[in-house]
TrEMBL record:
PANTHER family: 6-PHOSPHOGLUCONOLACTONASE (PTHR11054). Pathway: Carbohydrate degradation; pentose phosphate pathway; D-ribulose 5-phosphate from D-glucose 6-phosphate (oxidative stage): step 2/3. It comes from Hydrogenovibrio thermophilus. CDD domains: 6PGL (cd01400). Belongs to the glucosamine/galactosamine-6-phosphate isomerase family. 6-phosphogluconolactonase subfamily. GO terms for biological process: carbohydrate metabolic process; pentose-phosphate shunt. This is 6-phosphogluconolactonase. Residues 13-217 form the Glucosamine/galactosamine-6-phosphate isomerase domain. The lineage of its organism: Bacteria, Pseudomonadati, Pseudomonadota, Gammaproteobacteria, Thiotrichales. It catalyses: 6-phospho-D-glucono-1,5-lactone + H2O = 6-phospho-D-gluconate + H(+). The keyword Aminoacyl-tRNA synthetase does not apply. Hydrolysis of 6-phosphogluconolactone to 6-phosphogluconate. The keyword Hydrolase applies. It holds the Pfam family Glucosamine_iso. Keywords: Hydrolase.
Length: 225
């Protein structure tokens, strides 16, 4: 499609976005494991990432060297169905391909402050993630970083006490920490995202625009344009 940035890739359907994302993840994982002995992936919540996880559950890969992290989490009880970690386990991690010691969930049941402090220690041993997956809300938010909200700089994990959508308390990797990645994939699907996409293309300062990795790609379906 004419007029789009060169790092945007347009697909017919959300399913096509998910399929392409998984194909890219597998290629990059193999490259990372050959080069550094491990592949570090930051996961995202949302419908399209969830489809990616369902596809990954059906794949064969060098799972023992995959290391899974989270971009954000809702401060809810550990088994609450609204938690990103629960959806992630149900779609993919439950099937046991990846060793438990390689799965690093956010302990958001501890509350924002303690959870953020704990997860900061977890991610600060990683110099640079291999891939960060990001979804985008209809307001342009990504992870639990919301438009108009101010977050501390020079810190890996931030707290959110006033999310526009429930639950109000969350923790999230910061803009800087999400951007410290070799590859950032932004997955945008659905007609409900059109206004935010227009704002993105107009150069508005949306949260998702603030995250830029060494390479940043946008995978979008045609209905979101």
């Amino acid at each position: 499609m004419n007029g789009l940035p060169t790092n945007w890739r347009v697909f017919d359907t959300p399913a096509d976005v998910a399929t392409h994302t998984v194909e890219q993840l597998r290629v990059l994982a193999d490259q990372a494991i050959r080069a550094r002995g491990r592949f570090t992936l930051v996961t995202a919540g949302g419908t399209t990432p969830q489809k990616c996880y369902e596809l990954l559950a059906e794949q064969q890969a060098d799972w023992a060297n995959w290391h899974i992290y989270m971009g954000d989490e809702r401060c809810l009880p550990k088994e609450d169905s609204e938690r990103n970690s629960v959806s992630l386990h149900q779609a993919w991690l439950f099937f046991g391909h990846i060793p438990d010691k390689n799965i690093h969930v956010m302990p958001a049941e501890l509350g924002p402050e303690l959870a953020a402090k704990s997860y900061q220690a977890t991610v600060d041993v990683i110099d640079r993630f291999d891939v960060v997956l990001l979804g985008m809300g209809e307001d342009g938010h990504t992870a639990s970083l919301f438009p108009g909200h101010v977050y501390p700089e020079d810190i890996s994990v931030v707290t959110e006490y006033h999310s526009p959508k429930p639950p109000p308390e969350r923790i999230s990797l910061s803009y800087e920490r999400l951007g410290r990645s070799r590859h950032v994939f932004k997955l945008i699907t659905g007609a409900g995202k059109r206004e935010a996409v227009k704002q993105l293309l107009d150069g508005d300062d949306l949260p998702i625009q603030r995250v830029q990795g060494d390479e940043t790609l946008v995978f979008i379906d045609s209905s979101a344009l």
